[in-house]
Write a structure and sequence with these properties.
The chain is an alpha/beta fold. The chain is 32% helix and 21% strand. The chain has nine helices and ten strands. It starts with a strand and ends in a 9-residue tail after the last strand.
Length: 232
């Protein structure tokens, strides 16, 4: 199937189906947030917008990249997020790459956000929709981040059916610059388990779909049934 793999700067027009990839760490964090009870994620274009949305909606929380900052309730780290209790809450997310990529294709008819922790369910969801060619938005490093490209290619191969060995793709991600920077503690708002948590294949049983709700771009989990013997 003729999928397309593009960086955010290379996007032209509105794709029919877009899968936005951010392995380290936005859409690993998003999946963990849903697992910790978040009802929906609202994607913000700036930190000031994230704080404004939080302040104007009672009970909303806000999350950002980097070190903790006033007004923000969490940072973009799966290791730091996994112990939180967000039951029933709305979380506003602003990150350097992932949310930027999702907002860039927000008007597409179908937008999924993905990482390795939801790779299989994302592929199965696309199969069930008979979606045809997918535009994979590789958000890191202007489209050159190997951890994101590896995840996108893995999902694309899984869509074709049959068994796909995840190990080579995970090895590429673990060998990426982003993984090295995280492991070395070069990024703020970091937990030592972050790299390992970002490379847990199919940790969660859902895909994540972004839709326009009023004037907001909202990400929600979508349950995806298991298909025995097709995608593992």
């Amino acid at each position: 199937m003729d999928h397309h793999f593009v960086g955010i700067p290379e996007l032209t027009g509105v794709p029919r189906v877009a899968v936005v990839i951010d392995v380290m760490r936005a859409f690993t964090v998003a999946a963990w947030a849903f697992s910790r009870g978040v009802e929906r994620l609202v994607l913000a274009s700036t930190e000031s917008e994230a704080l404004a949305l939080k302040e104007s909606h009672s009970g909303w929380l806000a999350l950002k990249d980097g070190a903790p900052a006033a007004g923000f309730d969490a940072v973009n780290s799966p290791g730091l997020l996994r112990s939180c209790d967000f039951a029933g809450r709305t979380l506003v997310q602003k990150t350097t790459a992932g949310t930027v990529g999702a907002l860039a294709v927000a008007n597409a008819p179908l937008v999924l956000c993905a990482s390795f922790v939801v790779a299989g369910p994302t592929a199965r969801f696309l199969q069930s929709k008979d979606s045809g060619p997918v535009t994979f938005v590789v958000t890191g490093e202007g489209g050159r981040a190997d951890e994101d490209l590896a995840c996108a290619q893995y999902i694309g191969e899984c869509m074709a059916g049959g068994h796909v060995e995840a190990a080579p793709y995970l090895h590429r991600a673990r060998s990426s610059r982003a993984a090295a920077d995280l492991a070395a503690g070069l990024r703020s708002g970091y937990h030592p388990d972050d790299v390992d948590l970002c490379l847990e294949i199919d940790r969660f049983p859902f895909a994540m779909m972004a839709r326009q709700e009023e004037s907001l771009t909202v990400l929600r989990p979508v349950a995806v049934p298991e298909i025995p013997s097709r995608i593992r």
